[in-house]
Design goal:
The longest helix is centred in the middle third of the chain and has 19 residues, at about 120-135. Helices cover about 40% and strands about 15% of the residues. Residues about 275-295 have low confidence and may be disordered. It contains ten helices and ten strands. The protein is an alpha/beta fold. Helix 2 (about 45-60) links the parallel strand 2 (about 30) and strand 3 (about 60-65).
Length: about 300
C-alpha cells in the first residue's frame, strides 16, 4: 500500500495549522523541522499532543524530516557533536508520534556530486554520527532513511549497509542530478519506506508535478506501481506552497482518470470526500514556502 503525503509547509500557518489543513487530503505529513540560533519550529509537548489527536482523527501518519541545518559529517568535532545532539532531541521529542520514518541528511559540505573537499574524513565523521544516533536513541535503523542528495548514494552505501539504515529516495533529486531512477529503485526498494516526489525544470527542483517532466514522473509512478513486495510506503509530494501541492494532486488525479497504474490520484480525493466532501479545489492565495536553496530539503 502507498500512503500519499506532502510537507508541513503548504499554507502560511504554523506546523499544526498545516497539518489541520492537510489532514483531510493526505495520508501522511512530512514535518519539516529546524532549529537555528534565530528560530525553531520543533513542536512542544502541547503541539505534539495536538498532532497525535489529528493523526487519530484522520488516520494520519507522520514522517519526520530531521533538521537540515545539522552537519553530522562536519570535520569540526563540536559541530558534529552538536548536530548529533539536535537530531537526537528531535527523535526523542517526536517519538510519541510513532513516525512512519525519519528523513536523515548525511549533509554535504557543498551541493553537487562531490560532498566535501576531504571525502574520506566526511565519511568517517558521518558514520561516527550514525553510530552515536543509533546508540543514543535506540531507533530502528530501518526507520532512519538516508536521503539521496546531490552526491551519488554509492558514496554512503557502506554506511547504510553496515548499520542497516533505511533509504529515502528523493526522485526529484535523482532527476536533477541525472542519476538513474530505475536503478536506484531496484537497488534500494527493500530499504525504502519513503519516496520524495516533485517537479524539476531547468535546474530548479521542488516544483509542482505539473511543472516538471511529466514523462519522467509517469515513468517513476509506473515503476512504483510495479513493486509487489508488500512493503507499505509513503510518497511525499515534497513541495512548499499551495499552488504546487494542488497542481501535483491534479497530475495524480489525471493519471487515475487515464487509468494508469497505481491509485495515488484516488488517495487524496477519497480522503477529501470522506472528511469534508467534494474534491480538491484551487483557491488563490499568497504563496508561502521555505526560503533559501530548496535542493537542501
Amino acid at each position: 500500500m502507498i500512503r500519499l503525503g506532502t510537507t508541513s509547509y503548504i499554507i502560511e500557518d504554523t506546523l499544526g495549522g498545516n497539518v489541520r489543513y492537510l489532514a483531510p487530503m493526505v495520508d501522511d505529513v512530512e514535518l519539516v523541522l529546524f532549529e537555528t540560533p534565530e528560530a525553531s519550529n520543533i513542536p512542544n509537548t502541547a503541539e505534539i499532543d495536538r498532532l497525535n489527536e489529528l493523526a487519530s482523527e484522520y488516520d494520519l501518519t507522520y514522517t519526520i524530516h530531521l533538521p537540515v541545518d545539522a552537519r553530522p559529517g562536519s570535520r569540526d568535532e563540536k559541530v558534529r557533536a552538536s548536530s548529533v545532539d539536535l537530531i537526537s532531541r528531535v527523535i526523542e521529542r517526536t517519538r510519541v508520534l510513532k513516525p512512519f520514518g525519519y528523513i536523515l541528511h548525511l549533509a554535504p559540505e557543498r551541493y553537487g556530486p562531490i560532498p566535501a573537499e576531504d571525502v574520506r574524513t566526511w565519511l568517517i565523521q558521518s558514520e561516527k554520527s550514525v553510530i552515536d544516533l543509533l546508540q543514543r536513541t535506540g531507533v530502528d535503523p530501518l526507520l532512519l532513511g538516508v536521503e539521496t542528495l546531490g552526491y551519488p548514494l554509492d558514496l554512503v552505501d557502506s554506511i547504510i549497509s553496515r548499520h542497516g539504515l533505511g533509504v529515502t529516495l528523493d526522485i526529484g533529486h535523482l532527476h536533477l542530478m541525472g542519476y538513474d531512477v530505475e536503478d536506484h529503485v531496484k537497488r534500494y526498494a527493500s530499504r525504502c519506506r519513503v519516496f520524495h516526489l516533485h517537479g524539476v525544470n531547468e535546474g530548479t527542483d521542488h516544483l509542482g508535478l505539473h511543472r516538471g517532466d511529466r514523462e519522467k514522473i509517469d515513468r517513476f509512478l509506473d515503476l512504483l506501481a510495479s513493486l509487489e513486495d508488500g512493503i507499505e510506503r509513503v510518497v511525499t509530494l515534497e513541495v512548499f506552497d499551495r499552488e504546487s501541492f494542488e497542481g501535483s494532486m491534479e497530475v495524480l488525479h489525471e493519471r487515475t482518470r487515464e487509468e494508469k497504474p497505481g491509485n495515488l490520484g484516488d488517495r487524496g480525493r477519497t480522503k477529501r470526500e470522506k472528511h469534508v466532501g467534494g474534491s480538491v479545489r484551487s483557491i488563490p492565495w499568497r504563496e508561502a514556502g521555505l526560503s533559501g536553496d530548496r535542493r537542501s530539503v
